[in-house]
Write a structure and sequence with these properties.
Strand content: 35-45%
Structural class: mainly beta
Largest sheet: 8 strands, mixed
Number of helices: 2
Oligomer: single chain
Number of domains: 2
CATH architecture of the largest domain: 5 Propeller
CATH topology of the largest domain: Tachylectin-2, Chain A
CATH class of the largest domain: Mainly Beta
Distance between the termini: 16 Å
Shape: globular
Helix content: under 10%
Radius of gyration: 23 Å
Amino acid sequence: MRGFVFLLAIASSCYAQQEYSFAGKTFRSSSQLKATWTAHPDAHFYKVTATDGRHSVTLPIPREETSALLTELKSATAYTIAVEACIEETCTPIQESQQTTEAEYWRIAGDGNSFRTAKRLTSDANVNASALRYGDWAGTDLSGKVQLYYVPLQADEKGMKIGEQLATGNFTEFRPVSGFGLMRVCGAPGTTCPTTPNLSAQLALFQPVPMTNGTVRLFFEAQATDGRTRVLSLDSQDGYIARDFHRGPATRCSTFADFAPGGPCEPAIVIGVDIDAAQSNPNLLNARQFKVAWPNRDGRAWDGAPGAFLLFTTEYRDGRCSTAGFNFGYAIYDGERWQVQYNDDGCPRLMKGMQAMAPMHLGGNRYKMYFNQHPDSPQPPGPARKPIRLLYNDSPTDAVAFEDWEPKASSRPVHFLFNDGTPLTEDEISRLDDNFAYMPTGDWQLQVLYSNMSAVQANNTPPFIGTSILINP
């Protein structure tokens, strides 16, 4: 990681706010604040609390200390920090201050100051990266590794392809693996799809979710032959290796018949639309650009317990539930099915003007979520302006409800730098799309974002998948 150095600020106590150096600049931590105070002669211990009005962090501090490092805070957020001197169970306020955390700064892996010199996640990656992080549950041969899922450039492999890590601990480079995964079976330029029923005619975005039953459930987006887009799923046939999703002797789902009803790759409907007989959701015309979230910071597999949530992008050309070009809908798993959340008017609960959500588990019941923000009013002609923004949830229970998320108006800026330190413009940040965010080792000091990138905003310039790394966690 050339040009990327961690520095620890020097302080008079064991608590010190982390600082980071990159490309000749120093950045404060985006998730930490330091509080200092004058010792109280009668204190048995101190209680330090940071709150932004929705979320609070409280630390008990020994009486011999006069400073505290508050961690797991939200970025670019104003906090009130209160210090109390406690005698037995009685605490007395002695100090209050206001501090604001730093915004997040990410660097684009690669060289120079252009997408043209950015590092490609694989040699043939086109769009839609997602990663499977293996934990101890996967066995000694797989634990600690990451497997990539992506759409390749090649027309004869278009669909979902597998990427293998070049080396354990390397999260920016994978080697392509052919002969597995899923193929897009129709819909290529200049071709037409058959009209017979098929839910998976045109594959798009994928996410592997490891299950505690020994399989990996591949969630994926596909447009059916009826023109509607749904979220679907298939379970792996090779356990946690998770490359083969074909129920027959083949190792890749590659034909129209494979995905057809009764075929060896017929998927299950996860988020259905209003015309479906099963898993139907009223007033939902399409569900795409989804992400599944469960408590996985420590690399755990999902046990299918209630409370996991699924975000998806949807739109309404007829304006029935939203006039925004992009919206995100919300579903919560109840132990049997994914329940799309609804308002009393029969429309799904939506956050409007938001696209391509990428949640990251922070620990416990806390998550943060990246998304591309579209303007409320129609955009002028030309390339879309959709900068990446960031929201956090504040949940009183393990189940993260729609209303636990901060409103869009509270979203924060997210900054990106090329590897020489040059800031990306809004135009360049708007070329980052279909983001996937995770902590590949579970350590908050290493946070990674995979994104579609493009050297030029033009339809005839194929995008590629690149990596961003958080400079100041």
